[in-house]
Amino acid sequence: MSASTAQRAGSALFWKGLQHAGVKAIFFLRLLVLARLLTPDDFGLLAISMVALGILSQVTDFGLVPALVQRADVNEPHYHSAWTLGVLRAMAISAVVFLGAPLIAWAFEEPR
User: Fold this and answer.
1) Is this structure's pTM higher than 0.85?
2) Which run of H or of E encompasses 75?
3) Radius of gyration, CA atoms only, the chain
4) Are residues 53 and 33 in the same domain?
5) Distance CA 41, CA 9 (A)
6) Under DSSP, is residue 103 helix (H, G, I), strand (E, B) or coil?
7) Domain encompassing residue 6
8) Do 105 and 112 touch, CB atoms closer than 8 A?
9) pLDDT tens for each residue of 12-42
10) 98 and 63: one domain?
11) Could you tell me if 55 and 86 lie in one domain?
12) Which stretches within 38-75 are classed as H helix?
């Protein structure tokens, strides 16, 4: 690996690490604000919903962003297709959460 490639890789790693740390810090601050605003019971419901959404998001991840990044010849229809699939994925997750709320509540033994 040449010196310029190693330098670019190191720079990319630094910026990706900074981005990851920034996202985690913002999520942590959001949790602190919500913990302050919500009652403990409501915060528990929020945690349950975050777990359910996290699982569904991971299960339905198509890997479109890495595919677009790795593809050599990306054009406008590829971006439109990825955006449309992302919207359809969000709508499907919303429908599953809405229709599956009783099952999710049962799984977490939540009576509400």
Assistant:
1) no
2) none
3) 19
4) no
5) 46
6) helix
7) 1-37
8) yes
9) 999 999 999 999 999 999 999 999 999 999 9
10) yes
11) yes
12) 40-59, 64-70
